[in-house]
Structures are given as structure tokens and as C-alpha cells.
């Protein structure tokens, strides 16, 4: 009994196909909110005071401008005809700076943005 039998061999093959399909989409937009926020700040204000000080005396040479603390002193001279030419200090101009700091309070509008994201489901079987 030497019979040959042929057995069929079955082979399966798989073919994969891909389709793009939209399952959902997103929509995003921003919303701006305004609210008032109090603020504080220190402001410096500088004022100038001018004082004229009569001197009315003779000097031997020009006096350079000078600084004494917050005060700048500028000497004003004139030439006076005498037997000899001499400088006469007529006046000094004193310029003094005063600084004042004040605290202010005010309210300013500030904005903040939020983003809102919504999911939108497309109709079934929508392909891209």
C-alpha cells in the first residue's frame, strides 16, 4: 500500500489597507476678561528754588560755580571802572533741588485671556 496522497496546503494572506477617517475635530477660541486691579507706586517730584543773595563786595578773580549739598551756587560779577579794574561780586544765585516722594493709589484695567477648546464630532464615515 504505497499510495501517495497529496494534501492541499492552504495559505492565507492578509492585505492591510488604511483609510484616514475624521473621528473628531477641535475648535479653539480665546475669551478676554477685564477686571480692575489696584496699583501703588512711589513718584518723585523735584522742585527748584532760586534764591538771589546780594554780596556787593570786590573779589580778586572769577569765582567758579560750586556745589554745596543739593545747592548749586553761580557767582555773578561785573566789571567796575575804578583806578584799577577789579571784579565786584554782585550776587550769588543759589539753585536748590528738593525731592518729594508721594505714594499714589489707582486702579488699572488688566486683561487675561482664556482659551476654550471644544470637541466637535463629525458625521460618521468622513474621510480625509
TrEMBL record:
Residues 7-115 form the DUF2382 domain. Pfam families: DUF2382. This is DUF2382 domain-containing protein. It comes from Azospirillum himalayense. The lineage of its organism: Bacteria, Pseudomonadati, Pseudomonadota, Alphaproteobacteria, Rhodospirillales.
Amino acid at each position: 500500500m504505497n499510495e501517495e496522497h497529496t494534501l492541499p496546503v492552504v495559505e492565507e494572506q492578509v492585505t492591510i489597507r488604511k483609510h484616514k477617517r475624521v473621528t473628531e475635530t477641535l475648535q479653539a477660541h480665546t475669551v478676554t476678561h477685564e477686571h480692575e486691579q489696584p496699583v501703588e507706586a512711589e513718584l518723585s517730584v523735584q522742585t527748584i528754588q532760586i534764591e538771589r543773595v546780594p554780596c556787593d563786595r570786590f573779589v580778586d578773580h572769577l569765582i567758579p560755580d560750586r556745589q554745596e549739598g543739593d545747592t548749586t551756587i553761580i557767582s555773578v560779577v561785573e566789571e567796575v571802572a575804578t583806578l584799577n579794574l577789579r571784579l565786584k561780586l554782585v550776587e550769588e544765585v543759589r539753585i536748590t533741588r528738593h525731592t518729594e516722594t508721594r505714594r499714589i493709589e489707582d486702579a488699572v484695567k488688566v486683561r487675561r485671556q482664556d482659551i476654550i477648546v471644544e470637541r466637535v464630532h463629525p458625521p460618521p464615515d468622513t474621510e480625509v
